[in-house]
Amino acid sequence: MIDNDSRNKKGVRQAAITGLGIISSLGCNLDETSDSLRNGRSGIVFDEERRRLGFRSCLTGQVRGFNPKRYGFSHKLLRTMCEPAQYAYAASLDAVKDANLTEQLRSSGRCGIVFGNDSCVKPGVESVDVVRAKGATHFIGTGHIFRTMNSTVTMNLAVALGIRGANWTLSAACASGSHAIGQALMLIRAGLQDIVIAGGAQETNWQSMASFDALGAFSTRHDKPQAASRPFDRDRDGLVPSGGAACLIIEELSHARARGAKIYGIVCGYGFASDGSKHLFFPSEDGAIRAMKMAIDDAEVNPADIDYINAHATSTHVGDLVEANAVKKVFGTSTRVSSTKSMTGHECWMAGASEVLYTTLMARDGFIAPNLNFVKLDDECPPIRIVGKTESSPIKLAVSNSFGFGGTSSTLVLDFRQASKA
Amino acid sequence: MTDDEIIAAVNKILEEDFEVDHSLLKPSAKLNEDVGLDSLDGVDLIVAIEERFNYRIREEDARAMKTLQDIYDNIRRHIGPDV
Predict the structure, then answer these.
(1) Could you please report the per-residue DSSP string of A314-364?
(2) Which of A158, A160, A221, B55 is the most exposed place for a label (fewest CB within 10 A)?
């Protein structure tokens, strides 16, 4: 039977958010994370080990209060899970519990898992070290192959959660997590899945960030770590790497309603674009604009209806300018904008998923998180409306932007008008 | 090294690295059915023993190890008698 009330204006199946789980520098549960967002609490620290090792930037986001014992990691799980898989496992267990996704639902074949992840550097480094030291691959042991692959996240989680539907990891640089949610939406709209456990994961070890540090794109504001990430601000000097994992249960709306699931909101629009320019690491305004317009059109809303934009802005000179110009051209200058990377740092492969989760928490709790450390708009930036201090405000419709190396762009539109009452 | 010391060292690896319950660690226990090790655990156990006792176990010998006693015996053969 077709439940017309659960379809959008085009008669297409809709995708609700019915569960959330987060392991991050802002907290490892929903309420603590929401509290950090509301109070502008930074998760960035100075890492003494990076200084000793000769990093240009010694700043990093640090996962706050992660208690692995709470998740019952066994020897068998840890053998094959590297850092991002462990974070993703914990976030997924919390999201599955939040959504009350029973074993029967997970194993129906109508439930899949798609995560964004784009590296697992540390176990690769360790494997090579063993071969060099011992002169034989044998001593690497059996776990490292499962830890070194990007798909470590979904291969481990699919087994642990008994998933029998979609099962893959999506790699698209710093837009990975956002595209994973976009793909979950597509799988549900197409009728191929009823539930997708979607998210993003990001390692925080120094090994994973050494080559990124070599780009010279990280902030070196070592004297004030918590002031280092300052998107759109005139005095920004680069991004701060960070990580953890975010998980969102994306579920077909009538399926969610039929089982009485809590509905946080609807993922109602997805837009993507590739810059097609000659630059690998300089983003183009054109790609960002096309992704945003595609998402807005897909959601069948007007730009003026958007209450809040969670910007990709990472605190780099060029990236923030490009996004600000693109936002102005699509949304004008009155829509409220903030980058939660001002608090978390850049959660890279995870960011596109975590920022949808952060925006969902803001909508749930009725506020817009501040763009921390925003003192004065960059003179080159168009006058977009940056939220410098927490605003108490309902959020009905929001946009989340994510952009990555190679010119991959992803924009998601979120509709909170049908959210369950707390 | 006495037989008891070999047994204690191997069992310590199994308890600490493989989370095997002490009550399962009987010499006649089969590694798969009784101790609960899978094939990847088996490979990792060989590596752990090699590193602990500082010798390489031949692949055919490793494949022939079915019980804990087989492991204790292999170690005894390689490190020599307790004199």
Answers:
(1) -S-HHHHHHHHHHHHHHH-S-SEEE-THHHH-B-HHHHHHHHHHHHHHHHH
(2) B55
Determine contact: B44 vs chain A, CB below 8 A.
yes
What are the pLDDT digits (tens) for A343-397?
A: 999 999 999 999 999 999 999 999 999 999 999 999 999 999 999 999 999 999 9
Question: Which ipTM was obtained for this model?
Answer: 0.90
Query: What is the predicted pLDDT for the residue at A1?
Result: 47
Distance (Å) from the C-alpha of residue B83 to the closest C-alpha of chain A? 30
Total beta-carbon pairs less than 8 A apart between chain A and chain B: 19
CB within 8 Å: A139 and B47: yes
Q: Measured between beta carbons, which residues in chain A are less than 8 angstroms from residue B50? A: 139
- pLDDT, tens only, A8-25: 888 899 999 999 999 999
- Domain count for chain B, please give it: 1
Query: Is the CB of residue A143 less than 8 Å away from at least one CB of chain B?
Result: yes
Which residue segment(s) compose the domain that B50 sits in?
3-79
pLDDT, tens only, A23-69: 999 999 999 999 999 999 999 999 999 999 999 999 999 998 998 88
Q: Which CATH architecture has domain A4-415?
A: 3-Layer(aba) Sandwich (3.40)
Please tell me if residue A79 touches chain B, with a CB cutoff of 8 Å.
Answer: yes
Whole-prediction pTM: 0.96
**A138–B contact, CB cutoff 8 A:** yes
Distance from CA of A88 to the nearest CA of B (A): 23
Chain A segment 337-396 residues within 8 A of B by beta carbon are none
Other beta carbons within 10 angstroms of residue A367's beta carbon come to 19
DSSP symbol at A142: S
Domain boundaries, chain A: 4-415
Chain-chain contact of A141 with B47 (C-beta, under 8 angstroms): yes
CB-CB contact of A411 with A255 (8 Å): no
Cβ separation A143–B19 shorter than 8 A:
no
- Residue corresponding to tokens 């709470």: A70
pLDDT in tens, B13-70: 999 999 999 999 999 999 999 999 999 999 999 999 999 999 999 999 999 999 999 9
Query: Quick one: tokens of A146?
Result: 């499962």
Set of chain A residues whose Cβ sits within 8 Å of the Cβ of B18: 75
CATH of the domain at B75: 1.10.1200.10
From A144, A179, A255, A346, active-site residue: A346
**Is there a contact between A41 and A26 (Cβ–Cβ < 8 Å)?**
yes
